[in-house]
Design a protein that fits this description.
Blueprint (H helix, E strand, L loop, with lengths): L1 H17 L28 H5 L38
């Protein structure tokens, strides 16, 4: 019985927390303004633009598979290992 009550309470709390979602666009607090525009910008960025991460923050993944064998170019830095000095064993 306690387990059921705990699950019901957890579900009720989850529903209450999900009801606290955003209902209108974000605006700066009363009496304050958005950050000043960067020097090269024509106009100040909007709240939505400030919240959107730049592409470098989330680069797209490249999942291109190799479909055919390709001959690799010579790599001038791909050197053989140095000869091992002969020492006492």
């Amino acid at each position: 019985m306690r387990r059921f009550a705990f699950l019901a309470l957890a579900l009720a709390l989850a529903l209450l927390a999900s009801a606290c979602g955003l209902r209108e666009p974000l605006q700066p607090p009363p009496g304050q303004s958005l950050p000043v525009a960067p020097a090269a910008a024509a106009e100040p960025p909007t709240a939505e633009a400030l919240l959107t991460p730049p592409p470098i923050a989330r680069p797209e993944r490249v999942d291109e598979l190799v479909r055919r064998s390709e001959e690799r170019e010579d790599d001038r830095f791909d050197l053989p290992p140095p000869d091992e000095p002969e020492g006492p064993e």
